[in-house]
Amino acid sequence: MARPEPRRSSTAAVDDRVYLHDLKPRLTDMREEVLTGLKVTPRRIAPKYFYDQRGSELFEAITRLPEYYPTRAEMSIFESRLEALCVTLGRGNVLLEFGSGSSRKIRLLLEGLRPKAYLPVDISREHLLEAARALAADYEWLEVHAICADYAAGFELPWRSLDAAGRPVPMTGFFPGSSIGNFERPAAARFLEGVHRTLGAGGQLLIGVDRRKDKARLEAAYNDAAGVTAAFNRNALAHLNRALDGDIDVEAFDHAAHYDDEAGRIEMHLVARRELTFTLAGESFSFAAGETIHTENSYKYAPEEFRALAAGVGFDTVEEFTDSESLFSVFVLRAV
Fold first, then answer.
1. CATH number corresponding to 10-25+70-213+301-335
2. Residue 187 half-sphere exposure, CB side, CA atoms within 13 Å?
3. For 187-204, how does the pLDDT look when each residue is reduced to its tens digit (9 = 90+)?
4. Single pTM value for the model
5. Residue 165: is it exposed, middle or buried by C-beta count within 10 angstroms (0-12/13-18/19+)?
6. If we measure between CA atoms, which residue out of 72, 271, 100 comes closest to residue 178?
7. Boundaries of every domain in the chain
8. Residue 299: how many CB atoms within 10 A of its CB?
């Protein structure tokens, strides 16, 4: 991953024990990105467009579905192995989260690790500050340095915590939820390379990874009987309609998800039920019956695959934790 270009940044105290380091990340031109994706073959839209308010609510509902195991499996690891995780990671470091969390997982880590400071990173300034303020309010001992940046593109740390001798306090990175699976495999390697550079030699990364497993189990998780994942997938079109003045008939598309064993990934698509035409951002698009829009990939890793990926960009695997059914892994990596 190339080093990010330096940009004008700012730092400000925004609340008691909450500081904002705004790296002024470049925001994607939504109109250009979406229209370009719909003009290529096969057509595609980025999975980030699932997540308007309704999409976020639907995803929360997905995590509670009986078929959707990843959230429960990862949470069970944190709840049952928290002390072992904390001993492995060591207490009193700086905790850097790729994303701005308010989940039970980050709260368990904060309580268990008692970090010297917490650094959430997110491209959404508003979401970042909301989460930072909530955690600072709940943990009176916690200093929060919120970093507005695109963590997927790489960034330079704008602030370092120093010990009494003036040396940087060791860094522990946190990337939960199998989010690494949303990167194409070469992009996952580039992302981890950037994380390695950010954490520095000796830094650690705690990362959640969904495992390869039985095809039926995987496909059930993305094709739930209640149709919540289907609604989540179609909601991307409703989001685009509102944001880009569109008239897409959302109900004219079916949800489809299947597991490609050779690629090791779940693919999600929207499939046109019939021939149709719609307008989006002033441009017209025509679909044949059965034509698809590719909305998401979710890569799964055998443990040895992920260890090899991490080793290729300079991480040693210190420990791997898994749930009682061996569905999901939480790795502790160390930058060498």
1. 3.40.50.150
2. 12
3. 999 999 999 999 999 999
4. 0.93
5. exposed
6. 72
7. 10-25+70-213+301-335, 36-64+215-299
8. 22
